[in-house]
Amino acid sequence: MSPIHEIILNLLRCISGQQYLPFPFGDLYQRKNKDDPWSVIPPSMPRKIRKITALAEILGEKELVKHIKLVFDEAIRNAIAHSDDTLTESEFRTTDDGHPRVMSLKDLDYRVGFCFEFVSGLLKAYDNAKFALAKAKRFHKWPNYEVLELLKDENGIYGFHVHFSNGSKSTFTRTKQGVMQINMILDNGVGFMV
Q1: CB contact at 8 A, 150 and 133
Q2: Contact 94, 78 (CB under 8 A)
Q3: What is the chain's mean pLDDT, rounded?
């Protein structure tokens, strides 16, 4: 679910006038070993959801907060991995922060169904945006003599070049074959090596 969380947080960041971050939860990672930069503990889902909902609340997105809390229920997610939850003919029994919790199967079915609708709708909107952008003009002038070139194919936008006045360029592409990033810095946003 990390890509879904990242999409939601970056959309909210853009709405609030903040820049896109390739790793929007980077500040939530914890080091296991201070001498090894790769020895990290990624943030838990509840920590990521708290960060998302905090920004959504600041932006007044009350319906979104309500939907996120319904969809990203830690007790339901943990039921997949833990064997201490019980499913009866009429109830789902679990613990939430050590407290017993009972949910009717009707409520559980609704939440799971809504989760599929929510995530499917988000991914469909994401995919539609790639196609809509593919219909936009290909070249966009930037203020300091740079030019953004959108790269597109039958699947919509798949990347971009940023051309600089000195003849160099930066490139980012994401295709089924993999991701390519050339002359770019991903630190506190997206930066270019000119």
Answers
A1: yes
A2: yes
A3: 89
